[in-house]
């Protein structure tokens, strides 16, 4: 066994160097937060993955503590922590794994999981280098928190990410994903050195993109974009659901400078509800018109509140508002301008969170995070048209060729999901109005996935689903869309 140690390098800078002082600060920051409860309809689960910031504890410690506090009750379960962060000081071609046997902090030594690390040695994107780790803060600042909440019963697998793409990082993560004994920890701050107001606006959009499992985050959005993009791809593949725990920036501390701030967020990624917890497709598609009016109001008020139009905040979830709101559901929110042109469309293909939260998040993202369009402006509000689609369960299309796929599609009925390798795209059934022929529809779906119109591969997978669509004109007339 390798007995070399990577010593602590940041004591006295990012956190207190003396063990007693460090423990006291950690205790205070962890005590200041309480883990948010999961929705009443789903059991409490241990996070499988966490996003945490990596600034000095005085700046981001309480945001990080909101994530680490979630682990306390699971300290006996978690045996391994896979820790990934960006390489700030030394250039790394792909991913850098250390050759030492342990990492040290003022609170003691953490042994590395050498067996799991040896399982990565055949991957060309993994380099075995100690120099990038020597002074790197993105990983070290997480270690005292882990020691505080997990004790000494876990092993560490630390990886610094440089030029690795999402697919390369996903390949690594799949090998070490493990089961309930393994926690994936992603270290990243958000925006850097914007004014307070600019950072708030940008970080809100970035957080929504993370909650929607975006895999094209940039360094301007998050300094840990490289590890995040790959981790989010794997998290989506494993059906995790994302939950924002806390968000702030360095300007929020007492006496903080508002002219140049750094943004922070902590997000938990948990196993999604089991099949028995989901809204069944038939239940969704038979939902009443009253639910549609409520969802449209929630979507519109969410957007209006963000635009600062003086309208009340989105309605709080009440026990008797509608039984479907508290249960997991998948939705798409589509926006059109006064001329009927698409202005934004974002949604969820799987029911990972309560329906009311899903519609709120998708309404915000459709208005301000759809990269095909500029963020919505207040002057567009008067002509804005809102549409909410509730998705039924997707079923695989068992086809062996494109000809079989074209014959199986039902124009005007099917929404379709295309998945091939790391690419995925979907078109709602409403798109049949612009592409009435199956060949046109499938070609448009391929184009959205970044594939040529004549592309076909044996590994290409298609699934279809149905939707219940609510739009404001139909609901105002008392009719169904």
TrEMBL record:
CDD domains membership: MEMO_like (cd07361)
Pfam families associated with the record: AMMECR1, Memo
Record domain AMMECR1: where: 290-481
Family recorded in the similarity comment: Belongs to the MEMO1 family.
Protein name: MEMO1 family protein PRZ03_22985
Taxonomic source organism: Roseateles albus
């Amino acid at each position: 066994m390798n007995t070399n140690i990577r010593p602590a390098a940041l004591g006295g800078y990012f956190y207190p160097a003396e063990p007693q002082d460090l423990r006291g600060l950690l205790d205070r920051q962890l005590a200041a937060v309480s883990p948010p409860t999961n929705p009443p309809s789903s059991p409490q689960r241990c996070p499988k993955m966490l996003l945490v910031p990596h600034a000095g504890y005085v700046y981001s410690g309480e945001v990080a503590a909101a994530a680490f506090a979630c682990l306390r009750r699971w300290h006996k379960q978690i045996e391994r922590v896979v820790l990934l962060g960006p390489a700030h000081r030394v250039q790394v071609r792909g991913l850098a794994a250390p050759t030492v046997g342990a990492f040290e902090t003022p609170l003691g030594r953490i042994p590395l999981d050498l067996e799991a690390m040896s399982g990565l040695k055949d991957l060309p994107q993994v380099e075995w280098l100690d120099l990038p780790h020597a002074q790197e803060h993105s990983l070290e600042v997480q270690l005292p928190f882990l020691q505080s909440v997990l004790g000494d019963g876990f092993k560490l697998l630390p990886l610094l990410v440089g030029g690795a793409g999402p697919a390369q990082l996903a390949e690594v993560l799949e090998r070490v994903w493990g089961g309930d004994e393994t926690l994936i920890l992603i270290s990243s701050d958000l925006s850097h050195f914007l004014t307070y107001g600019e950072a708030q606006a940008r970080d809100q959009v970035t957080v929504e993109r993370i909650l929607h499992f975006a895999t094209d985050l940039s360094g301007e959005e998050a300094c840990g974009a490289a590890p995040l993009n790959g981790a989010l791809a794997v998290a989506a593949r494993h059906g995790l659901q994302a939950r924002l725990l806390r968000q702030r920036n360095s300007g929020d501390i007492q006496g903080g400078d508002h002219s140049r701030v750094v943004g922070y967020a902590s997000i938990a990624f948990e196993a999604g509800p089991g099949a028995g917890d989901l809204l069944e497709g038939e239940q969704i598609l038979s939902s009443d018109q009253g639910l549609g009016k409520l969802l449209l109001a929630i979507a519109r008020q969410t957007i209006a509140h963000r635009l600062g139009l003086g309208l009340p905040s989105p309605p709080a979830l009440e026990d008797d508002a509608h039984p479907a709101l508290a249960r997991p559901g998948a939705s798409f929110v589509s926006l059109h301008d006064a001329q009927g042109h698409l202005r934004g469309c974002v949604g969820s293909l799987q029911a990972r969170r309560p329906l009311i939260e899903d519609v709120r998040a998708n309404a915000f993202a459709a208005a301000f995070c759809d990269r095909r369009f500029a963020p919505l402006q207040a002057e567009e509000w008067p002509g804005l048209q809102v549409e909410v689609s509730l998705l039924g369960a997707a079923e695989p299309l068992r086809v062996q060729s494109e000809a079989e796929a074209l014959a199986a599609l039902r124009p005007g009925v099917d929404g379709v999901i295309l998945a091939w390798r790391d690419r995925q795209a979907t078109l709602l059934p409403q798109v049949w109005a612009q592409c009435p022929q199956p060949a046109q529809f499938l070609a448009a779906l391929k184009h959205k996935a970044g594939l040529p119109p004549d592309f076909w591969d044996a590994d290409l997978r298609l699934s279809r689903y149905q939707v219940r669509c609510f739009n404001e004109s139909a609901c105002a007339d008392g009719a169904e869309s």
